[in-house]
Design goal:
The protein is of the alpha+beta class. The chain has two domains: about 90 residues; about 230 residues, Bira Bifunctional Protein, Domain 2 (BirA Bifunctional Protein, domain 2), CATH 3.30.930.10. It contains eleven helices and ten strands. Helix 1 packs parallel to helix 4 and helix 5 crosses helix 10. Bound molecules: phenylalanine. Phenylalanine (PHE) binds next to strand 8, strand 9 and strand 10.
Length: about 350
């Protein structure tokens, strides 16, 4: 029995030394220490031993068992650590390999400028209003005091859907829609697309963008309009920017003005960008015409207001020194990448 135990020990040790997987290790454990294992069956046979032999063999059997258990444990640890090392080696990352760069999109220059404009006016407490691009003649013209024979109503200038419906030629109809819905105080801007039957060239497009502004309350004056536009011009074109109002005519404002900003390139001295003028026109504005207030059910004896309509393309062209409007619509990545 002694020899049997010793040979189990040697045999098991030999087998363990050659294993490469946890499964093999487990097989060996079962083979020797399992319920039907070799060591177990030797122990079972101990009943047949004499009283002197039994403790000696018993002790030896226990030694062999702990020896095997230790060896199994050590072999297992070694296997686990080998496996871990192998896995780490396999998963090793070379941080010096250049990454795969994902091309990120960016904001269109028109959106950049539009966001800047919104920020300025939201900062002054304005809300954003919206209106439809397919608009009733009533809102686009009639309610804005634009008479039937006004040239803007000509098919040469306006896209008609039918007799009563047009693609809005300006964002001003939103003034009327807002004033119909809401009583003063009103303080809104409305950014949006407008349409005019123009041929495409460096400064014209049949689709472009405006931002309408409208403030109506008690005691609103032209001074408020000028102050507001000054804040706007400085925020967009720089602290030193000045504005200039030239008398003009819009049927829905009285008095009306065209508003210029001092040239963003030369600062007012005259250059190629401002065609030697020193000034660049960017918006139309004025005090809301009493008839327009009346058309919306607001009493012009109690309330007054100012409105303005600003060209987004023109502003973007100024902000970024873009000399051809068409660049804004052609989706040429080489152009768009620059912003
Ligand atoms: N709607 C005018 C235009 O498109 C601009 C404007 C808006 C003028 C509001 C005065 C007041 O030219």
């Amino acid at each position: 029995m002694k020899e049997q135990l010793n040979s189990i020990k040697d045999q098991a040790e030999k087998e363990l030394s050659g294993i490469t997987s946890i499964q093999e290790l487990e097989n060996i454990r079962v083979k020797y220490l399992g319920k039907k294992g070799e060591l177990t069956s030797v122990l079972r046979g101990m009943g047949a031993l004499s009283a002197e032999e039994r403790p000696i063999i018993g002790q030896l059997a226990n030694e062999v068992r702990s020896f095997l258990e230790e060896k199994l444990e050590a072999a297992k640890n070694e296997l686990v650590s080998k496996e871990r090392t192998a896995r780490l080696e396999k998963e090793v990352i070379d941080v010096t390999i250049p990454g795969k760069v994902k091309a990120l999109g960016k904001k269109h220059p028109l959106s950049i400028v539009l966001d800047e404009i919104k920020d300025v006016f939201i900062g002054m407490g304005y809300e954003i209003a919206e209106g439809p691009e397919v608009e009733l003649d009533y809102y686009n013209f009639e309610a804005l005091n634009i008479p039937k024979n006004h040239p803007a109503r000509d098919v040469q200038d306006t896209f008609y859907i039918n007799e009563n419906m047009v693609l809005r030629t300006q964002t001003s109809p939103v003034q009327v829609r807002v004033m119909e819905q809401k009583k003063p105080p009103i303080k809104i801007i409305c950014p949006g697309r407008v349409y005019r039957s123009d041929a495409v060239d460096a400064t014209h497009s049949p689709v472009f963008h405006q931002v309408e502004g409208l403030v109506v309350d008690k005691g609103v004056t032209m001074g408020d309009l000028i102050g507001t536009l000054q804040v706007f011009a400085k925020s967009l074109f720089g602290e030193n920017t000045k504005i200039r109002l030239r008398p003009h005519h819009f049927p829905f404002t009285e008095p009306s003005a065209e508003v210029d900003v001092s040239c963003w390139t030369c600062g007012g001295n005259g250059c190629r960008v401002c065609k030697g003028e020193g000034w660049i026109e960017i918006l139309g504005a004025g005090m809301v015409h009493p008839k327009v207030l009346e058309n919306c059910g607001i009493d012009p004896e109690v309330y007054s207001g100012f409105a303005f309509g600003l060209g987004v393309e023109r502003t973007a062209m100024g902000r970024f020194n873009i000399d051809d409007l068409r660049l804004l619509y052609e989706n040429d990545i080489r152009f768009l990448k620059q912003f």
